[in-house]
Amino acid sequence: MSKTMLMLLFAGFVLTGCNTVEGVGKDIRHAGGSLEENAQEHKPAERQPVRTRTVVYR
Question: Residue 19: what are its φ and ψ, rounded to 5°?
Fold first, then answer.
């Protein structure tokens, strides 16, 4: 299948789940919220700066 055909098929599935433009907006907002939650769960821990000592030779 061509990419265009796959995109049209996907768009058809998305639009059949949303009857109105408002419904599309709600679905997109929900998907964005899920992505944000997932990103927060997998956020790497902040690293503390490494402390070093300066050695002075006399």
Answer: -85, -20
pLDDT in tens, 22-56: 777 788 888 888 888 888 888 877 777 777 777 77
Quote the tokens at residue 21. 């433009």
CA 15 to chain centre: 21
Name the one residue in this structure whose structure tokens are 């996907």: 10
Q: Give the Cα separation of 57 and 29 in Å (integer).
A: 62
**Percentages (nearest 5) of helix, strand, coil residues in the chain:** 60, 0, 40
